[in-house]
Amino acid sequence: MRAAALVAVTALALVSPCAGPSALGATSAKPFDGARAMTHVRRIAAYGPRVQGGTAERKALGYAANQLKSWGYAVRWQTVTLPGGRTSRNIYAERRGRSADVVLLGAHIDSKYPSPGANDNATGASVLLELARDVASMTPEPTLRFVLFGAEEMSGRTDENAHHYGSRQYVAALSPAARQRIAAMVSVDMVGYGTVFNVRSMRRGPQTAVRSLQAYGSSVGRPLVFRLDSGASGWSDHEPFELAGIPAAWVQWRSDPAIHTARDTAAHIQSARVTATGRLLRGWLLSLDAADLDALRP
Q1: Which domains does the chain have, with CATH numbers?
Q2: What's the gap between Cα 193 and its chain centre?
Q3: Cβ neighbours of residue 17 closer than 8 Å, sequence gap 6 or more
Q4: Would you state the pLDDT for residue 157?
Q5: Distance CA 70, CA 67 (A)
Q6: 25-40, pLDDT tens digit by residue?
Q7: pLDDT in tens, 223-270
Q8: Residue of 95, 127, 93, 94 lying closest to 109 (CA atoms)
Q9: What burial class does residue 205 get, using C-beta atoms within 10 Å of its C-beta: 0-12 exposed, 13-18 middle, 19+ buried?
């Protein structure tokens, strides 16, 4: 991203929510609202363990959908089939940009029993919600798509393929043309606790999203340390996108000893980590220009 473009983006005023593609993309001087994001974290975690296909997961998805609708988004639902005849769902919404190229931010909203999943992954879902609220009245360069995935966690079965049901089925349902439109995907997963801010991938697909995030982070004094996702089938929802040839990255603060335990509560979250994640992603998204989107293409 160009230094001049970063300065210009910061200086521009907000545009109307109904502004068309010709309106200027903009960001205000007001930073990402970490306090609002933490309100979402507490609300989502309060549903308790959000096991895939369960009542708590459905309630959390409904909460997220209602928030998006209240900010003027058209929310779409996708049924996710699970073993044993059960179902989960994904929800997604878009903010149209000047470009048809899509930058997709994803976060899973389920959690692994017995955890209320405040960090894993109410934090990621809440950062997405607050970013969606923030850009609802803007027209950035890329079209921004916000996807909340169901059924990311392993539940019941323990083999390496018994997870990522929501994101895998989302990618599988994309037409070739729809896949081609996605310039980058970022999975926001476990961003509320830890001392090291990582950007991760399996290194089995294009690394342009990883490099773009790292370059932006370094430019604003928030470096992202690369850490390989060495899981045989990946450990977050970037996995199916990366394996489909879509530039993908996973942002994560680590390490968190409370993951997948009953100790992963809202009181456990380091709110400064949530805020730092939101500010970095907000700045990166709004700094992207047409040349940056071209550079993301493998």
Answers
A1: 3-296 (3.40.630.10)
A2: 16
A3: 72, 136, 137
A4: 59
A5: 5
A6: 333 446 899 999 999 9
A7: 999 999 999 899 999 999 999 999 999 999 999 999 999 999 999 999
A8: 127
A9: buried
